[in-house]
Every structure is written in C-alpha cells, then in structure tokens.
Write a structure and sequence with these properties.
alpha/beta
C-alpha cells in the first residue's frame, strides 16, 4: 500500500471515528440521532461508489451508537428501531422495514471499512444489541440467521486476542448469540455452546470473563453441553463467586433452588440476595425503578416458578414484593388470599392459593399461540411467540385499533386461562397471573367460572372501601363524555353525595394534579382520552381538556394521598388499563400504576367505542352509588353489559329514567354489546 493510499485510508478512518463519536454524543437525544441518520441515508441516494458505501457504513455507525444507548437504558422498542435503521435504504417510522443485510457482506469486503480500527468494536456492539433484542422480543429471526456467520466471525476474532485484551462486552456477544439461538434457532446452539464450554475452563482467561460464560450455560443453554444448567450455576457460585455482580449472584442462587433439598432455607438466602440487588441498582418506588425491576426480573424468574411448584404462596408474594419494592409497609397482605396463576408453564397450567395447588398437565404452547394470535387480531398488533412460526404474521394497517368482533376469541381466552379440568383452589380475594398480559382475564373468568378477583398490582392489603360522600367528575374533551357524566352525576346526587364537576373548557393539568392529591374525594371519575404510545407505554398520557393538554403517568406516580379507607379512581378512557414492560407484575400503566392500599382503579384494556363505554359508566355509577363494594359494582357492570344496546337502554331507563340522552341513544341503537370484545375491556386493579 503506497503512501498516498495510506493517507487516504487514515483520513477515511478519522472520518468514521468522528461520525461514531458524534453519534455517541447525540444518542441520548432521540430526535437529533434520527436526524443525523436520516441525513446520511439521504446523502447516499445521490452518491456513487465507493462514497455510497462509506455513507452506508456511517449510517451503520450512527444507528449502532444509538442502539447501544437504548440497550443501556432498557429501551427495547428503540433497540428494535435502531437495529433496523442501521441497515435500511429508506429509514422510516414503522416497526416493519426491509433490512439490507447484504451491507454486512459489503462492509466486510471493503478494505477501507474492514481494516478500519473501529470496525471490529462497532460490530461487536451492533450484534450484541441485535441478538439481545431478538431474544427478548422473539423478533428478527431471519435477520439473525443471515447475520450469524458475520457475528460468529467477529466473536471468533475477538476471542483469538491475547486473553488480557478481551473485554466483557466481547464475551457478551457470544453469550447473546447463544441465548438467542437457544430460544429461536436451536440448530445453531450446539457448536457455540461447545466453544463457550471450553472457554469456561480456559485458565488463561480472567475469572471475570470465564464467569460470564458460565452464567450463560447456567440458563437453558446448558442443555447443549454435557452437564445440566444447575451444574453450571453451582460452578459459577463456587469458582467465580467473587467476580460475579450481586445481580448475577442472585441469578445463580435462584437457578439452584431445589424442592427436595433445603428449599425454604435456600429461598430465604435468595430473597436476601434479591433485596441486595434492588437496594443497589435502582432503589425506591419511582417509575424508573419499577421499570428497571421489570426489565431485569428475567434474571430471577426461576425463583417464582420454583415457589409455585413448591406451593409456597408466602415466598412467592415476598419475592414479588422484594423485587418490585411494592407492598404496604404498615399492613402485609395475607398470601393465602392470593390466587396465583401460571397458565403457560413448561409442563402445564397451574393455579395456587395458599398451599393448595391445582395443575392441568398439558402442552401449553398451543393455547399460548392461540390466544396471542386472537388478541393480536383484536387489537391490531404484531405479537410474536417464542417457539412459534412467526414468519407469516399479518402487519396491521391501524396499529392498536380494536375490532368489534374476532371469531374464536372467547374460546381462545377460555382455553388459555380457564381450561376444563382446572378448578380454583382456596378462597382467594385477589389474583396475579404470571406473567401478566393485557388480556380480558377478569371477563374471561366471569364468563367461564362465574366469578373473578381484583388484580393486585400494588401487592398491598387494600383498606375498606369508603362510603361515597364526595365525588370529583372530570369531563375531558370526549364525544360521549357529557352523555355519560350527566348520568354519573345523577346517580351520586341521588345517593346524597357532594359533586365537583369539571368541564373541558376550564380544566388544566395543574388543577387535575391538585385535585388528584385531595384526600376529600371518595370517587374520582374521569371520562376523557387515553393516549398510549405502544412503543413506549410508560409515556401514556391522560388527556384532560379541550386543548389536548394532558398528564403523564410519571406526573401521577406516587402522588396517591393517604387517608381513611380506599377511594375509587375510574378512568373511562381508551387504553387506561394497558400496561407495558416485560416482567411479572402489571404496574407500568395508568390504572395498574396508580393503585395502592388507599385507591382502587378501573379502566379499559383497549380503545373502546363511545356508546358502550358510556353505558359502562352509567351502570358502574349506579351500582357504586347504590352501596355495592367497588369490586362488586365492577363485576355487576360487566355482567349487565352483556346484551343488546336496546336492552341496556331499557334497563338504564329503569334505573335513571328515560329523559337522558344516553338512554335514548341506546334504546334506538341496533348494536349488540354481548361479545367480550365490547363488554370485557374493563379491568379492576388494587
């Protein structure tokens, strides 16, 4: 290579380094990072080779820097965006795009790129993020399969370095690839598992790195070695304990729990270690801490499976309270009052209440796929399932738009959550499904079993319901709001309650926050718009006024005032009962996140239509005002809605009288509310 070419290469490498450095600096600013990437993609269109390839590589660099930042923040949805945008010709804001994976080959065959000092390191970061995201979201299978040879080549290259030069992030690449393969492409797992098994015993490697490999084999990846996963977990705890973080120590401790041995003793030790992890990582009950707990609970999930299998409700509840930093410090709920459900276990579906366990041995993959597909159809979402063929899923045209009827939905829900042959043990007062999905579980239980229970998202003992003497009614700018709320107001006035009514023309978010913290209200009733970003559910908005001003979930988090008894928050809004983030506890959502011992919440799991949602509000107000408990009123409302709109109108006429606009509209409607898609969207959290 002559001097001129060397100078050209050196200048080009400086350009690549500068682009990556700038991308790392702007990565925290999503819009600026997007703008930077869009600019490179635009410039590429008019460029000729080799400049076009250089611009494509800079696009890859920019996206990789932002992918790394999103991964460090636990922003899975953003990780998917950046992983795609790194290799697309026309980046756009859509969750499905065509990745030009041939660019990876082009980069490798271009000496100016392949021999650049940063190529290997950037590739490690990209493939690390790609395979980590693909495993967690069961996505990008084809992209991961095509990328496998390139990622494997990079991993082999970094592992061939002198051991003292190998960095943990380079080890994580092999771990991420194997973890993905175990879940979504098992034919690729054996050879990589063998290599990683050899590295665990490679005394030339630092113990920290060998320990990371051992951790990976302590998961399901261990099945591809000559030893069991618990073998690798015990080895990690003995050989590499000092080099493990507290999180990894907790992961290994729960991996070796054994019912036949000192189960409770080991469980107590695991609980203590879990408490150490939560105290050091992101302590407290903030929204950020709860999101972080949800994102990392996969490390200790075997503890909860073990507790269910051991029929140890007390240890199960304490584990959830410890990990999520939830529960009431003053009064602890009785674990025997919880109905724990694990519908999609490895060997079957399980119900647990106290120490009574019921198990239906079956292959749960079919009901899991069935209900996921039907709910995807109902909600116009794109849902992948581990172990399923996800290659031909329909792409929704209107994401999040709920259909009025989906054939077979009720049967799929019943088969998933209330299958024949599984009876309810004990005398539960509340419930948790592990893991929890945004499905109409309470409506399904009512239809199948004739009873249901509150979802305990706060893990706290609820205080007795208040007698309703004071009600705040907040009317947002929603079409059916006035129709509904004039009947809500009438119901509570008839019962003798004092009413504070707020109109959309005069309301502000500041006023809502002030009134929300007011301990004087026994019921807070909001009819408005919920605005859910399906890619960032923690940023859900509650619109409050005609100018579309809103409060965010974070604005209301931990603002629940203390007071005597428990009040009711009704959010008759679209998606108000939705919750996001992976994990076991439904918490990151308006209704789920605003519960506590002093507040129960009711809202909807998906976008609802005006007439049935207004009828829902009218029924609920009548039953609450008549003296029913909050939960009894909720159940009675769901049961009452299951008929034609005209029949609903006739019944509400008997409750309220016929002069109300909503009653007249219902009686003249030909709609039918009897399908679960209409009446089953409401959820009750405590």
């Amino acid at each position: 290579m002559n001097r001129i070419m060397l100078e050209q290469f050196a200048n080009l490498w400086k350009r690549f380094d500068a682009a990556f450095l700038e991308a790392k600096q702007v990565a925290p600013n999503f819009e600026r990072a997007k703008e930077m990437l869009w600019s490179k993609a635009e410039s590429r269109r008019s460029a000729s080779m080799p400049e076009r390839l250089y611009l494509e590589y800079e696009q890859f660099l920019i996206a990789t820097a932002s992918l790394c930042y999103a991964q460090s923040c636990g922003e899975l949805n953003l990780m998917g965006d950046w992983a795609m945008w790194a290799l697309v010709e026309e980046p756009k804001d859509h969750f499905v795009q065509d990745m030009e994976l041939g660019r990876l080959y082009d980069f490798r065959k271009c000496p100016e790129i392949f021999y650049s000092p940063g190529y290997e390191g950037v590739s490690v970061i990209y493939f690390n993020g790609l395979y980590d995201y693909a495993r967690k979201r069961v996505a990008f299978k084809e992209a991961c399969e095509i990328s496998w040879p390139y990622a494997q080549e990079i991993f082999f290259a970094v592992m061939s370095q002198p051991p003292q030069n190998i960095h943990p992030v380079e080890v994580f690449l092999g771990c991420a690839m194997l973890s993905w393969a175990v879940r979504d492409c098992q034919e690729k797992a054996p050879s990589l598992a063998k290599l990683i098994e050899e590295q665990v015993s490679n005394q030339a490697l630092p113990a920290e790195l060998r320990g990371l490999f051992c951790l990976t084999l302590a998961t399901r990846a261990g099945q591809f070695t000559g030893h069991s996963s618990p073998y690798w977990a015990r080895r990690a705890l003995t050989e590499f304990y000092d080099s493990l973080s507290n999180l990894y120590r907790a992961q290994m401790m729960v991996s070796v729990l054994n019912i036949e041995r000192q189960g409770r003793t080991d469980a107590e030790a695991a609980l203590a270690q879990m408490a150490v992890v939560r105290a050091e990582s992101n302590p407290g009950r903030t929204l950020a801490a709860t999101r972080e707990a949800a994102q990392t609970v996969e490390y200790v999930t075997p503890y909860f499976v073990w507790a269910i299998n051991m029929a140890a409700s007390d240890l199960l509840l304490r584990g959830l309270q410890t990990w999520y930093c939830q529960g009431d410090d003053a009064t602890h709920p009785d674990p025997n009052s919880f109905l724990f459900s694990m519908p999609f276990g490895e060997t079957g579906s399980v119900l647990l209440c106290g120490n009574e366990k019921r198990e239906l041995v079956r292959n749960t993959q079919d009901p899991l796929e069935g209900v996921s597909r039907k709910m995807m159809e109902l909600l116009s979402t794109y849902t992948t399932v581990a172990g399923a063929d996800n290659g031909s899923l329909p792409i929704p045209e209107r994401y999040g738009f709920a259909l009025e009827h989906v054939k077979g939905l009720s049967d799929a829900l019943r088969d998933a959550y209330c299958p024949d042959g599984l009876d309810v043990p004990g005398q539960p007062k509340c419930q948790l499904i592990l893991p929890m999905e945004g499905h109409p579980i309470q409506g399904t239980q009512l239809a199948a079993w004739g009873r249901t229970w509150p979802i305990s998202s706060s893990l706290a003992e609820p205080r007795p319901d208040r007698v309703v003497k004071s009600v705040l009614i907040w009317c947002g700018d929603v079409y059916s709001g006035q129709m509904e709320l004039e009947m809500v107001e009438a119901a509570f006035k008839t019962a003798g309650a004092q009413i504070q009514f707020v109109n959309p023309e005069t309301s502000t978010p500041e006023e809502f926050l002030r009134e929300y913290e007011n301990t004087g209200y026994d019921v807070l009733w909001v009819a408005s718009h919920g605005d859910l970003d399906h890619w960032s559910p923690h940023q859900i908005k509650l619109h409050l006024a005609r100018d579309r001003s809103a409060v965010m979930l974070d604005d209301l988090w931990n603002c629940l005032p203390d007071g005597e008894g428990r009040r009711l928050l009704v959010l008759n809004v679209c998606d108000g009962a939705r919750f996001g983030e992976p994990g076991l506890l439904p918490r990151i959502g308006l209704a789920a996140g605003l519960t506590g011992p002093t507040q129960a919440t009711i809202s909807h799991l998906w976008p609802v239509r005006s007439l049935p949602s207004a009828a829902f509000g009218a029924y609920l107000a009548h039953f609450v005002a008549s003296g029913m408990s909050f939960f009894e009123a909720y159940c009675s409302t769901l049961l009452s809605l299951q008929k034609s709109a005209a029949d609903v109108g006739v019944e509400l006429d008997s409750f309220y009288g016929g002069e109300f606009q909503l009653v007249q509209s219902l009686k003249s409607s030909s709609a039918n509310f009897s399908n679960i898609e209409t009446w089953g969207s409401a959820a009750f959290f405590e």
